[in-house]
Specification:
10-stranded mixed β-sheet; about 15% helix; 12-stranded antiparallel β-sheet; Tick-borne Encephalitis virus Glycoprotein, domain 1; mainly beta; 5 domains
Length: about 750
């Protein structure tokens, strides 16, 4: 009966409009919910199959609520760096567990109001934890998923509990490949110096430096602050010495904490330069301020002069014979005293650049220009923590120890001394170098370049060894695979090390006892080479002077007549650290050497040789001291970067975005999140800003899609529809009552 159908239709209208009112109320209630997606209610008719041409059987209406999951709300800026909004497609991957395990459900949300919980995890207001790909510096593994951040390669990976590297498969969503973002585990960081850039004017009017008249000028110093891998800061002193009208040599004092410093030469234009090496020779480490009247004596072996430093309360009015070092009541720390001691050393000692203050230590380096030193600290032992001899890594103060002068012969890769003056010791004898046999003869074959003509050296039964050496050098430089490594020096044949040439093999047995000599290997050991067969001279020698192929000292920079650089012969520094920091040698497993940028050839953007005074125009270096975690930032690609108070940054994770074929098919969760369903399709993980995924905006939030004006309008319409449905029910009820009375 249609009247009963009318009642049923009215009831369905009440139910449908009630559902619509519920959706409207949810929309209004979530007007301030971040990332909320509006639920719209659509209606569809219910039709019975009893309708005919003469009879109508009403069916009513049913509601179909629909969330606009893929619809984006407006982005609103905030002042919180961990607030994130997605501009475009995609969802943050989250989980209700900070560290998901088996059975924990993976969810997806656009509610990016993340903040740190008490344990340092990124969690949003819905209680969902952000999940992402962990980042580590790329270890070179070709199978790793590599991401370039600001020109540096990182890989999606993390360390397991055993410290082993786990490489992430970025297409899989599970507890192994997606990791929680935890900012409380971020430790401090330090960055070693990798480049020094400097500009200065080395005055063209300066005289060529004369060590015997150092006060006349010709030497200038530039200091740069550098950092090792531990974040320790050290002062690096670069000294320029004028050696010719347009050339300046360059040397350096070893920075504190270093074992050695190597200045590497440029090999452009076929110029082979050896390296300039400086070694830490020892140190005086003070545990307390010395007693008043105690002394330290330093004897310079070159001059035989002894310098005695006396530690006194009032240095300004000291009337003694020794050199005073202030230890007054204003000197409140050991570091203060060491600074005063350094000042006194540099004002009174030759080769003052050998002494460097570093906290409570005085570092003393060897010198190619200075003499050996003998230090008597016996009267200061009580305040010395250590007095380290260069021949030991550690040591108890012994009172007296030596700082040797670097032997000038160390600059030579090897030498052969020709000691015989008898012609019979040379005539017909041989010397084999790199498989080529050189024969000493007074009647050389003009067609044999390996014959060494000694005819001019013979005078009766005697011979002049210096002429022997000169003749040999001529033959060697004409025939050797790498000429100019051989230098005549009196009765000595010097064989120079080479940065580009190979090893040299010597067979000296053919000369018998006519020669003797010494060789220095890369470790600095000396040994005899007399009558040694197939002796190998490596190409890894370290020397103490920068030399060209002729063995002549060359400058770090030569200038054109207009004062601009013509050529640079020094371009980097290698440092081996004694303080546990990573060595800067470029070898496998070590850090990179420091690159020296002193400007460009033909320009005045760095070093210049112009008139006027010495000036330092600029000095810049990278690197940073140890820094503590200070905050976090997120870029448009979802890269989470830790910020440190030393200005350094370090990418630690990537927040991927999940996209779906049909996002409207996802199932909603409490907390403004959704679950993957068969209708939505499988989640695909993408880096933000790639492959159709949206970009992430840090310091912003996606606002609710609720439009209050629209919702209030819908509320009025829904209310009227609900009232109309109630009118249907009351009218039909009255009709039914009337029908009942009639019957």
């Amino acid at each position: 009966m249609s009247i009963f159908g009318a009642l049923q239709s009215g009831i369905s209208g009440l139910a449908a409009q009630s559902s619509a009112m519920g959706a409207i109320s949810d929309n209004i209630a979530n007007v301030n919910t971040i990332g909320y997606k509006v639920t719209n209610t659509r209606f569809s008719t219910l039709v019975t199959k009893q309708t005919t041409s003469t009879l109508y059987s009403p069916g009513g209406v049913q509601s179909r609520p629909r969330q606009e999951i893929s619809a984006q709300g407006l982005l609103s800026s905030t002042s919180v760096s961990t607030d994130m909004a997605i501009s475009g497609n995609g969802f943050f991957v989250v989980n209700q567990a900070a560290n998901p395990g088996e059975g924990d459900m993976w969810a997806y949300t656009r509610a990016g109001s993340f903040g740190l919980d008490d344990n340092g995890y990124l969690v949003n207001t819905g209680g969902f934890y952000a999940q992402g790909w962990s980042l580590l510096p790329w270890d070179g593994n070709p199978n790793a998923s590599v991401v370039n951040v600001n020109g540096i390669n990182y890989m999606k990976a993390y360390y397991d509990t055993d410290g082993k590297t786990v490489y992430i498969n970025d297409n899989i969503i599970d507890n192994r490949n997606l990791r929680p973002v935890n900012l409380s585990t971020i430790g401090g960081t330090a960055t070693p110096t990798q480049q020094i850039s400097l500009g200065a004017n080395l005055p063209s009017s300066a005289p060529i430096f004369d060590p015997s008249n150092a006060s006349a000028g010709g030497k200038e110093k530039i200091s740069a602050l550098i950092y090792d891998s531990l974040g320790n800061a050290s002062n690096l002193s670069l000294e320029y010495t004028k050696t010719s009208a347009n050339g300046w040599a360059m040397s350096s004092s070893i920075p504190s904490g270093a074992a050695s410093l190597v200045m590497t030469g440029n090999t452009e234009n076929g110029k082979d330069l050896t390296s300039d090496v400086y070694y830490a020779a020892g140190q005086l480490e003070f545990s307390s301020i010395p007693q008043n009247g105690s002394t330290i004596s330093i004897t310079d072996a070159g001059t035989g002069k002894t310098y005695t430093f006396e530690f006194v309360k009032d240095a300004a009015h000291y009337a003694g014979a020794n050199i005073p070092v202030e230890i007054s009541n204003q000197v409140v720390s050991v570091d203060d005293f060491v600074k005063n001691f350094e000042t006194a050393l540099k004002e009174n000692m030759p080769s003052a650049e050998r002494f460097t203050a570093d906290g409570n230590k005085i570092s003393i380096v060897q010198s190619t220009m200075g003499s050996a030193l003998t230090i008597d600290a016996s009267k200061t032992l009580s305040c010395l923590q250590s007095a380290v001899n260069p021949r030991a890594d550690t040591g108890i103060p012994t009172g007296v120890f030596d700082i040797p002068q670097i032997d000038d012969d160390i600059k030579n890769g090897a030498r052969i001394d020709f000691n015989s003056t008898k012609a019979a010791d040379y005539e017909g004898k041989t010397l084999t170098i790199n498989g080529k046999t050189y024969t000493f003869t007074s009647t050389p074959d003009p067609d044999d370049p390996l014959d060494v003509d000694i005819s001019e050296a013979i005078s009766g039964a005697d011979i002049d060894p210096t002429k022997i050496v000169q003749s040999l050098v001529t033959a060697l430089n004409n025939t050797a695979d790498e000429p100019n490594r051989f230098v005549a020096s009196g009765m000595t044949l010097e064989i120079l090390p080479s940065s580009s040439g190979g090893d040299i093999t010597l067979d000296t047995t053919g000369l018998g006892t006519a020669i003797d000599g010494v060789i220095r290997n890369k470790d600095g050991d000396w040994g005899t080479i007399q009558n040694k067969n197939n002796l190998v001279l490596g190409n890894t020698f370290k020397t103490n002077t920068t030399e060209d192929q002729q063995g002549s000292i060359v400058p770090a920079v030569r200038f054109n007549s207009d004062g601009t650089p013509k050529e640079f012969w020094v371009n980097s520094m290698e440092i081996e650290w004694a303080n546990g920091a990573e060595n800067m040698t470029g070898e496998s497993g070590h850090g990179t050497p420091i690159t020296l940028n002193m400007g460009n050839v033909g320009t005045n953007d760095g070093l210049t040789n112009l008139s006027g005074n010495f000036t330092t125009n600029y000095i810049k270096q990278d690197g940073a001291k140890f820094g503590s975690y200070a905050g976090v930032s997120v870029d448009e690609n979802g890269v989470v970067t830790a910020l440190f108070d030393n200005g350094e940054t370090r990418p630690i994770a990537i927040l991927p975005l999940a996209t779906f074929a049909n996002p409207e098919g996802m199932e909603s969760l409490t907390g403004n999140a959704w679950l993957e369903t068969d209708a939505s399709g499988q989640a695909l993980l993408k880096m933000a800003g790639t492959n159709g995924a949206g970009e992430i905006t840090s310091g912003a939030l996606e606002t609710s899609k609720t439009d209050l004006a629209t919702e209030f309008s819908n509320m009025i319409v829904t209310q009227r529809a609900y009232s109309a449905a109630t009118k249907i029910i009351t009218t039909a009820d009255e009709m039914l009552d009337e029908l009942t009375r009639m019957t």
